[in-house]
Amino acid sequence: MSLSDFEVLKKLGDGAYSTVYQVKRKTDNQIYALKKVRMASLKPKEKRNALNEVRIMASIKHPNVISYKEAFFDDESGSLCLIMEYADSGDLYQKILAYQKKGCYLSENYIWNIFIQLLRGLKALHDLSILHRDLKSANVFLNKDGTVKLGDMNVSKVAKDGLLYTQTGTPYYASPEVWRDQPYDAKSDMWSLGCVLYEAITLKPPFRAEDMNGLFQKVVKGEYPPIPRTFSKDLANTLSQLLQIEASRRPSCEVMLRSSLLQRHIAEKYTETDSLHENSLLGSIKLPKNIKLITDFLPKPNYRDLRANFSEPIPSSEKTPSKSPSKSKFSTNRSYLTHDSEEKKASSLSPTEKNHNIFSPKRYREILKESYGALKLPKIRYPGKGIIHHIKIKRNPDDIFSTRSLPLQRGANERLERIKEVYLKKAVPRLGLSPDPRTPIKVSYKPTSWT
């Protein structure tokens, strides 16, 4: 196929070197998502990463993972075109914002449905030794029929020996081992899943601070506020298992799905249903010298609907809350909170919570949504600009964030300063703010010696 076989309906989003559109295939009038990657703008390694996303998506055939449909090269625009499943109900982040605006929580049943489907989708990746590495609410896609899809595999990677070393992820969801610049495995995804679960429950990320250094301290200590008492102990226990500081103590997807705790919230007992979807990791896609010949090396088209073979019942979706909570079908649910009663007032979102710090509410949401893609150390990439900065931080004894005030290993403070430089010097000014004057940053581009 080619781009002429699709009708572009609207733009869905932009990346550093890519644009995503909603398109309609002319042969069957079905709606899909089209991702165009401008290959001419990429370096060889970045081109291989783009092909790796195609490889991973084509390898996974599961109802809870955004499915691959087709890939081809468009000569006219010089772009790699990836056709994939379109989620017709947005993403979890958008739903969280809608409920946040209304001042009410998602129902607990709906949260369990989201979580269980995410577990199944993530298990499909982990079974092939694929780490997602950027699991967050904005990458959890929803359909009107109630299905939940895990998507955005642009930084996903195969862990050949079970471990990865490149520090990648969005800070609010990054695991302690990623923050510490340590090797990590699939258990790092489980931490991120716990952060998504917490955010679905409370409408806020579990770890929040006024600066990146404070965020680091909270993550590595595992300090997060308890969830509202309106939710069950089962949810609290599930969170405590996922947000364990020690990666080895976190359960795998398989263990969680078979646990008695989750079985109480699964309509039918967990079986080997997922194994019916035969997944096998495709070989690496060869990058030809002539990029126009890349179509010959791409996976074959696959427009089959996976839901037809999904034997387990799909839970119904939860609609965005209406303006009249009393008319909502969730108005009797104890998790549906408004400002109508004293009990509900105590559990609703307070103005203090809504105006926590520079990372909240609207400005925080923009940073959280965009998050400048994935954070990668020691080179920090800005997908919005396609620039890589090499930053050396000069130690300042008078700086309140000097190495003397942090019990960190040698070099860890430098990584924190790099992160702070990116998000407070780049992200915050973009949103019309200025960095906190209490956190001075001195930058030097010459190698420094540490004492």
Automatic annotation (TrEMBL):
Low complexity bias locations: 311-332
InterPro entries in alphabetical order: Kinase-like_dom_sf, NEK_Ser/Thr_kinase_NIMA, Prot_kinase_dom, Protein_kinase_ATP_BS, Ser/Thr_kinase_AS
Superkingdom field: Eukaryota
Gene3D superfamilies: Phosphorylase Kinase, domain 1, Transferase(Phosphotransferase) domain 1
Leading EC class: transferase
Composition bias type Basic and acidic residues, residue spans: 337-346
Any one GO molecular function term: ATP binding
Keyword GTP-binding (UniProt): no
Chain positions recorded as ATP binding sites: 35
Coiled coil: none
Its EC number(s): 2.7.11.1
Region named Disordered: 308-356
UniProt keyword terms in alphabetical order: ATP-binding, Kinase, Nucleotide-binding, Serine/threonine-protein kinase, Transferase
Family: Belongs to the protein kinase superfamily. NEK Ser/Thr protein kinase family. NIMA subfamily.
Protein known as: non-specific serine/threonine protein kinase
